[in-house]
Design goal:
Blueprint lengths: L2 H20 L6 H8 L3 H38 L9
Helix pairs in contact: 1-3
């Protein structure tokens, strides 16, 4: 494996580790060493799967945040005593 390939593999492994950390997974030294043994194709596939998982997690977090804001706004618009208070 040439210098460029080793650098690309190291960068891919770093991104995989960052993605796993974002998703709440720890990557041990042994895990990292195993990742470095993967082929470029395997690293790319792993990185793509994790990128999809990160994207999905971000979408869920955004949706939850938006839902909470909407609920706060609705609660702020209701009269004191609830919606049926006269």
């Amino acid at each position: 494996m040439g210098l460029v390939e080793r650098l690309a593999a190291a960068l891919a492994v770093n991104e995989i580790v960052r993605s796993r950390r974002f998703l709440g997974e720890h990557t041990s030294k042994e895990d990292r060493e195993e990742l470095l043994k993967l082929t470029a194709s395997e690293l790319t596939s792993t990185a793509q799967v994790l990128a999809s998982a990160v994207h999905l997690r971000q979408q869920v977090e955004t949706a939850e945040f938006t839902r909470a804001i909407i609920e706060q706004q609705k609660a702020a618009q209701q009269p004191p005593g609830g919606p049926l208070a006269c």
